[in-house]
Amino acid sequence: MRAFHRFNTTVTALAVFTAISAGGASAADPTQPDSSAPSATPSCRVVDASLATPLSSKSARGGDVFHFTAAPSDGQPSADGLGVVNFVRGAGRGGRPGQIGVELRYLTLPDGSHLPAMIAPESRGPAMYNGETRNAPFFLSAFGFAKGTGFHVASGVVGVYNFLHSGSQAVVPAGTRLRVVLGDDYVSGACTIT
Question: How many Å apart are CA 80 and CA 154, to the nearest integer?
């Protein structure tokens, strides 16, 4: 009899637990938005800017400071900003092109305060600028496969040229367009670039 009483108590407790669980699960209204679901992330503030200081991989050095000007399209006044050259590689033999990597730091607002700024991470706003290889076109190198001594000599000349010549320096002229993300929200994930 005691065993039956324990069994009956266990079954009753299990039935109550199941009813409470089912009642809690059915209490959520599927037509109401889920408060635990993440809300849509707002868009970052992105403005157009232009480089005010020309840069060249021939003369620039890592750590050099350069100036840019942002011109917001939302009626806000334009602002001057500072950036830093974070990577430079000069052009070299064998057609190696020059490269310059840049990083924006901040805009100076009219009240003197600084607003963090960065180049928008997208294909239209590069943070790396490259020169050109200036290599001879590939079809000239293919002359070496043709029959005849003249073609072999031409191919040898092209090969020597491609080995000895230097690529062009990376040059970023003043006025180069930049797309700039303002503030730290993109870095912290509080906004997205649309």
Answer: 53
Q: Which is nearest to 128 in space by CA: 43, 44, 60, 45?
A: 60
Query: How far does Cα 76 stand from its chain's mean position?
Result: 25
Q: Among 144, 141, 68, which Cα is nearest to 108's? A: 68
DSSP letter for each residue of the chain:
-HHHHHHHHHHHHHHHHHHHHHHHHHTS-TTSPPTTSPPPPPBP-EEEEEESS-EETTT--TT-EEEEEEE-SSSPPPEEEEEEEEEEE--BBTTBPPEEEEEEEEEE-TTS-EEEEEE-SSTTS-SEEE----PPPHHHHGGGGSSSHHHHHHHHHHHHHHHH-B-PPPEE-TT-EEEEEESSHHHHTS-B--
Tens-digit pLDDT string for the chain (194 aa): 444 444 444 445 444 444 444 444 444 555 555 555 556 889 999 999 999 999 999 999 999 999 999 987 777 788 999 999 999 998 887 778 899 999 999 999 889 999 999 998 875 445 888 887 656 555 555 555 555 555 555 555 556 555 556 788 999 999 999 999 999 998 888 898 87
